[in-house]
Amino acid sequence: MQYLAKHAPIIPVPRPHGLIKLVGFDARVIFMTYIPSTTLKNVWNILTPSNKVSIQRQLDEIFTQLRRLEKIRRG
What we know:
Blueprint: H1 2-7, E1 16-21, E2 28-32, H2 40-43, H3 49-68
Antiparallel strand pairs: 1-2
């Protein structure tokens, strides 16, 4: 998420605030900014065709930006 915020600021991502490892579990929990919203599934049927095209264009731009990013190589 930090990488996206730095290299692709057009992409709306929550800001990370911390990461903890749960003792006794093979799990980690990340704390991040809450972004209130609704899902497309909940509103898709009430959107106008022009709204749907607008969303399609926005998502296309986001995915285009994601595809342009270089992969992070970890050692």
